[in-house]
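Section 5.1 Outputs to date
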Amino acid sequence: MYAMLVEINIKEGKEKEFLEVFERNHIGTREEPGNLRFDVLRDPKIRTRFYAYEVYENEDALEAHRQTAHYHRCVKELENIMSEPRSKIVFEWVLPVSYE
């Protein structure tokens, strides 16, 4: 399995717009066959900081996700509301054990 955490910082006052943009991406991603999890989280102390916790069957499933229309639309729409570029951490999967 392939997991990553994406940090997205939004300009003050753009939180509602972010949620509208990202909800479309969330719905589309959850419908992808290789996506196992796509959670959107908000920092309780920094209300303009959001995280996407994404789990895919493998790296190929993530690459397929990056080719979708909803992903490209989301990236484009986020450009004007982010306060800084997105950052991500890719994790090494430990448990549960994956039997690919």
